[in-house]
Write a structure and sequence with these properties.
The complex is a heterodimer of chains A (510) and B (296). Chain A is built from 16 helices and 15 strands. Chain A has 510 residues and is of the alpha+beta class.
Chain lengths: 510, 296
């Protein structure tokens, strides 16, 4: 065998083995950090990859694996995870996992009785040592070299000393302040066995862990003697009086969120209002955008008209400009006080409509802007469909003496509407979830005044969900995920209808 | 067509022109207005479409240059617009490359190979695409929050997290590229295989060079998609220096701090190149797809 062929034969497996070992090391690291689920995911992906790339039988999957893995991990899994979160109380109050909440309690300390030490950080510019001076007796203790880069340092043991070590001088105050967070993480053992931690910039004092973990899972408070017990129904540790002690942790709460959405009167009422507006918004958008787009397409397909290319380019422009820019441009133009649209309206008619504070006007504005954004797409689609209509149909109708309106309603519309239907449903589904428009233009405002959870008159379901999860106080991720799950079901229904519509069109085309 | 034209025909043509010109005036109005506003001095100046007094202050701020105000104080740029533009371009370029790598290889398998579950996987890719990422925002946030606990590089407020979150959006692109591959006759690759090429060589050295137009189009579409993507970026990015344009731009128009003129200049500065790229991509999309239509 020549040298190159040896390389070609053995390089891929060698690289594969190195990658696999690296991945396994990563899994160990992640697992050690306490993220079991993540470690499991990485392990599964690594194992699958090893299988796919080593088996000759699965050759085709070698090409598929990266793409499919990306789709499954970053699209499918988040969707399933959303559904799962809908059944938990995950929120800003119940943010941590149970393990992390417990270790938060176990990390809490309180200042106990005992000796305190004056502290100075000594350095020669490269190494650091701690100098501890008993505040009563004046005895001196020195630490070994401190590793201040390590975020989770080992306990430090000090030794008695007579005098400061040579060549080391106390650091400047600014340096001390910079290093304070690292110093606070240190636990120092004094020769008498007492544990001290940083209690002031120049002082170390004895501290004790506030809570001790009991065998039955409860936590004893060493300072007060009270006991905290975890309550897995509500996701909190509770004291004897049954009061919740923050921080809470995540627990499954069954279908409570869904029950709230569908049966709690105070919640259902605004939810239904928002749902109705979502449907109205999406339907009217499709209606307006399709009407404008189709009329323009018919006009631009008229051969007697000159400069059609120029018109078409200009009319296509709203689609080419990035949505986030044009929506914000409209937000400024519609501004109640100094927006140009109100300046013009004021100059012409003496009126200044309150586009952002009146619910009806805000909805009107959304529809105007969305029609502006959406008609070019429909126009392009319709122009394509119009080309497919045989021109002899129009010749025949001209012979019969029909006018343009008759042509449009009797020939063009019936022929175009059927292939257009699935595209209109797709457009409806898109606008049903048109989060960007609502969030950037009105943010859902003006708000209803009579709801428990802030909800806006122009909110559609997704923007409402976003507000519950990320904007308004509370950050109720669980409830938001439950609403997302309901929207998933609606989108699935829309997709199914769309599929049926497409199939019907195809069948008729045959 | 030999249709007899009656008298009203000429009037109808004129009326159509008039309607179209009026409509275009309405459509173009926001663009002209924003150009005019970017050249007016101050953030609240009202005035005619052609500004009476041209000032480049907003453009200077958008380009990150401070300028001396009328009262002698230096006005600092309110936001790092060029930095946002760079973030957007960086994320979009990398996302375009990742999308291209993932979707091209998958499309090759879908187009040229036989394996179990092929048609189901193809339909699934299309079906998944109907569920927008905005519905899974809570989970996306939670996932990257947890990843960030172990690897801060991939956590919340990192561009790497954004790239990973975008990597899954390859369904439609895979379909597009597969459609193009299907129009290229497989005999050429078969010939290469007869000459001793492995499937990988046939793919990389024979098929890919023939598919450059569609690869370019898919790259541009993925690029634009990443630039204009707002929901996921708004959840994952938080620090002002990390923001992309889509997330940062809205900071200009808060009720308490309303920087209308500065926004106008920044919007043109960032919107114009993206618009040009989009129109080019649309043109190439049409020509690229017809060029591939060997089978008709």
């Amino acid at each position: 065998m020549t040298q190159t062929s040896v390389l070609q034969r053995w390089a891929p497996p060698a690289i594969g083995i190195v990658l696999a070992l690296g991945a396994l090391y990563l899994v160990t690291l992640i697992h050690a950090a306490g993220e079991t689920l993540l470690a499991g995911t990485v392990l599964t992906v690594t194992a699958l990859a090893a299988w796919v790339y080593s088996s000759q039988r699965l050759y085709a999957y070698r090409y598929l694996f990266p793409g499919i893995a990306a789709v499954v991990i970053f699209v499918v899994f988040p969707m399933l995870y959303t559904v799962a979160i809908g059944f938990t109380n995950y929120s800003s109050r119940n943010l941590l996992t149970f393990e992390r909440a417990t270790s938060y309690f176990l990390d809490e300390t309180y200042q106990a009785e005992g000796r305190t030490y004056g502290f100075a950080l000594l350095s020669d510019g490269s190494i650091y040592r701690g100098r501890f001076e008993d505040s009563e007796t004046g005895e001196l203790f020195l630490s070994p070299e401190l590793d201040l880069e390590d975020p989770t340092p080992e306990p430090v043991v000090t030794q008695p000393a007579r005098q400061d070590p040579d060549g080391l001088a106390p650091v400047e105050l600014r340096e001390l302040i910079r290093l304070q967070p690292r110093l606070r993480a240190l636990t120092v053992t004094m020769p008498d066995g007492g544990l001290v931690r940083m209690s002031g910039l120049r002082q170390f004092a004895p501290v004790q862990k506030l809570y001790a973990l009991n065998p039955d899972g409860s936590l004893s408070n060493r300072q007060e003697g009270s006991v905290l017990r975890p309550n897995f129904e509500v996701g909190f540790y509770q004291n004897e009086a049954g009061e919740n002690v923050a921080p809470g942790f995540q627990v499954g709460i069954g279908a409570a969120h869904f029950k709230r959405i569908f049966t709690d009167e105070a919640f259902r009422e605004p939810f239904v209002r928002i749902f109705i507006w979502t449907v109205v918004f999406a339907a009217l958008t499709v209606l307006f955008a399709t009407s404008v787009g189709m009329i323009l397409a018919v006009l631009l397909s008229w051969e007697a008209l000159r400069f059609r290319g120029v018109y078409q380019t200009l009319l296509f422009l709203p689609y080419a400009v990035p949505g986030f820019i044009s929506i914000l441009v409209f937000k400024g133009l519609f501004n109640n006080n100094f927006g140009e649209i109100n300046l013009i309206l004021h100059g012409l008619f003496g009126i200044k409509p309150a586009w952002f504070s009146d619910p009806f006007l805000a909805k009107t504005m959304l529809l105007i802007v969305n029609t502006w954004l959406g008609y070019p797409y429909m126009m392009v689609l319709c122009m394509g469909l119009l080309k497919a209509i045989p021109s002899d149909l129009y010749e025949a109708s001209a012979v019969a003496g029909a006018g343009p309106l008759t042509n449009f309603f009797r020939i063009t519309l019936p022929l175009v509407i059927k292939p257009l239907a699935p595209l209109m449903i797709a457009s409806f589904a898109f606008n049903f979830n048109n989060f960007v428009l609502i969030n950037l233009l009105t943010g859902g405002r003006p708000d209803f005044l009579d709801t428990q959870i802030p909800a806006g008159t122009t909110d559609i379901l997704v923007s409402y969900t976003y507000r519950i999860a990320f904007e308004d106080s509370g950050q109720n991720f669980g409830l938001a995920a439950a609403i997302s799950t309901v929207i998933f079901a609606m989108v699935a229904l829309l997709s199914w209808i769309n599929l049926r519509a497409t199939r019907i069109t195809k069948d008729e085309a045959r | 067509m030999a249709i007899v034209l009656d008298k009203s025909h000429r009037w109808r043509v004129l009326a159509a022109h008039a309607v179209l010109i009026c409509l275009i005036a309405v459509i173009i109005f926001p663009f002209l207005m924003i150009l005019s506003i970017s050249l007016r001095p101050g953030n609240f100046a009202a005035g005619s479409l052609i500004p009476d007094q041209i000032s480049l202050e907003h453009w200077k701020l958008a380009l990150g240059i401070s300028y001396e105000g009328p009262d002698g104080r230096m006005v600092e740029p309110p936001f790092p617009v060029l930095r946002w533009l760079w973030n957007s371009v960086k994320v979009a370029t990398l996302s375009g490359i990742i999308t291209l790598l993932l979707s091209t290889t998958a499309a090759y398998a879908f187009s040229r190979m036989k394996f179990r579950g092929k048609s189901q996987a193809l339909s699934a890719l299309l079906l998944i695409q109907m569920f927008p990422a905005v519905l899974a925002l809570v989970a996306i946030y939670a996932i990257f929050d947890r990843i960030g606990n172990v690897f801060p590089f991939f956590g919340i407020n990192s561009h790497a997290a954004l790239l990973l979150a975008y990597a899954g959006g390859i369904g439609l692109f895979t379909w597009t590229i597969k459609g193009y591959f299907d129009t290229i006759p497989g005999e050429i690759e078969e010939a290469a295989k007869v000459d001793g090429a492995s499937p990988w060589q046939a793919f990389r050295l024979v098929l890919l060079p023939m598919a450059v137009p569609i690869l370019l189009v898919v790259f541009l579409l993925a690029f634009i998609h990443a630039i204009i993507e707002y929901p996921v970026a708004s959840v994952l990015l938080q620090g002002q220096d990390q923001l992309t344009l889509a997330v940062g731009s809205k900071l200009f128009l808060y009720e308490q701090r309303y920087l209308w003129g500065d926004f106008a200049a920044a919007a043109i500065l960032s919107g114009l190149p993206i618009t040009v790229v989009f129109i080019l991509a649309q043109k190439w999309m049409v020509s690229g797809l017809t060029a591939g239509g060997i089978k008709g």
